[in-house]
Amino acid sequence: MFTSEKEIEVRYAETDQMGVVYHANYLVWMEIGRTTLIKDLGYEYAQLEREGYLAPVTELSVKYKAASTYGETVTVKTWVESHGKLRTVYGYEILHADGSIAATAVTEHVIVKKENFRPVSLRKIHPEWDAVYTKIQRGES
């Protein structure tokens, strides 16, 4: 299974009054992970947007396991959990430096035309990108 990794230094601004990372910041880290995965595969999400397409989140599930704190470095591991005709599901693990799990998550995305938000298949607009996602989805390689 192809997995992308991105290290992130936890910034003070990402923490709450309890000194731990505020839960919504994990969503930002997942976006960074997705962008890194796409780049590692040789593609660019920004190019997709320039072509008139978006990939909004249609579903999200996060399980918080252990707090992350200011000053530590976490690693966001990202992979394609599943990829079908219209939906792509990304999987994530956010790990502490010692390898313990801070959070796990999945996000589901559907590519839509920017002008009308009608779904469109990645296969139709980028067949080579679609083929890579199909090949690397979890359990397929």
TrEMBL record:
Transmembrane segments: none annotated. Pfam families: 4HBT_2 (PF13279). InterPro entries: 4-hydroxybenzoyl-CoA_TE, HotDog_dom_sf, YbgC/YbaW. Gene3D superfamilies: Hotdog Thioesterase (3.10.129.10). Keywords: Hydrolase. The keyword Magnesium does not apply. It comes from the Bacteria. The keyword Nucleotide-binding does not apply. NCBIfam families: YbgC/FadM family acyl-CoA thioesterase. Belongs to the 4-hydroxybenzoyl-CoA thioesterase family. This is Thioesterase domain-containing protein. It comes from Sporosarcina ureae.
